[in-house]
Amino acid sequence: MSAAPVPLDHRDWTGFVFSGRRSDTSLRVRATWRGIMAMGCAACVLVACDKTAQQAAAAAADSTAISAASTAPVTVIDDAGRTVTLAQPARRVVSLIPSATETLLALGAAEQLIARTRYDVAPEVQHLPLVGGSVDPSIEMIVSLKPELVVSWESDKRQQFRERLTALGIPIFMLRTQDTTDVFRGLANLGALTGHTPDAQRVSTALRAQLEAVRSSVQTLKVPTVMYVVFNDPPMTAGPKTFIGQLITLAGGRSIFDDAATNWPNVTMEEIVRRDPDVVVVPVGEFKAQALSRLKVMQGWRNLRAIREGRVVAVPADLLSRPSPNIGLAAEVLRSAMHPQFPSPVAEPDSIPDRAPSRDSAVKN
Question: For the segment 306-334, what is each residue's pLDDT rounded down to a tens digit?
Fold first, then answer.
């Protein structure tokens, strides 16, 4: 079974907000344009007045529409199949999923977030009160913050948590993300629930372009086989229907377990050796140098041709394991891992975990 293709025309895509540092060159260009604009101001002021008036009227109309949308009732279906209705978009949000937190930040909802989990690393949320982890949050702390919406991951294990919050009158949106379609549906829903639908649409366009650029850049290249190490002992990898599996395909690779029937399959070391991947990709967190050294001498792993020949690539665990708008950047990182002629958009991580995420931790991200 081949990897499921990423639906580049999916209408629920909501995308990625690009950011970057201003270079000296860009500052010089801006300074030049300031001079040109200053010299031309006197000549065009009369013409500009009429155009400015038209733009102001259009902006006022847009502002009125956005203001109306920000107070209108919102109804969405969450990933537990429940109808979630808010009297108006939530202004106080507790996100218990790091990827959902990243999504809300990308949509411009930073000021609406009122708490963080121990797994959230974004600087924008470090000042917020800590409510625990994704799977063990403090209900008492959450209730004390008076949220208008709680975002939690959908699982049979979360039913009691969901029912308790519902009984307390706190709206809860259950999110389950496995593949890229789930990512984009979640983005659209979170945009609606927080009053950021226009932002979600703009972000969607950017992400679609970013992923399409990655896909088209590798179309004529040889496709390497890849072992993506979710867990090293016992070995676990990402199945073809996960967002990681789909990004590997989009970025010009083929997972050696693209025939896996489950999302996070345990595989045998013997089968990994038999399938002999061209590249081994390892998500990293802490103690990278030590862990890579151990991997190279571990029974089974040391027998891989990719290990012996140095084709082991570390990638940032937070970036690759969190299905958020950052999947566009993750695709670029994977492309660099499999096709070294493309420079990586991020610095090589300094550390790597001894054990990568389990099934539950993959979901909670």
Answer: 998 989 988 888 899 999 999 999 999 99
106: closest CA among 203, 175, 7? 203
Backbone angles phi, psi at 351, to 5 degrees: -150, 160
Strand, coil or helix: 172: strand
Tell me which residue of 222, 254, 221, 223 sits closest to 237, measured CA to CA: 254
Report which of 226, 244, 237 is spatially closest to residue 262, judged by C-alpha positions. Answer: 237
Domain borders along the chain are 74-203, 218-364
CATH class of 74-203: alpha beta
Q: Kindly report the CATH class assigned to 218-364.
A: alpha beta
- Give Cα 65 to chain centroid, integer Å: 29
Q: How far is Cα 359 from Cα 231, in angstroms, rounded to an integer?
A: 10
d(CA 177, CA 346) in angstroms, rounded, equals 24
Longest dimension (CA), the chain: 78
Beta carbons within 10 angstroms of residue 92's beta carbon: 14
pLDDT in tens, 62-103: 444 444 456 789 999 999 999 999 999 999 999 999 999 999
Average pLDDT, the chain: 79
Residue in 100, 133, 117 with CA at minimum distance from that of residue 324: 100
Integer Cα distance of 15 and 335 in angstroms = 19
Helix axis angle, 327-338 relative to 243-250, nearest 10°?
Answer: 50
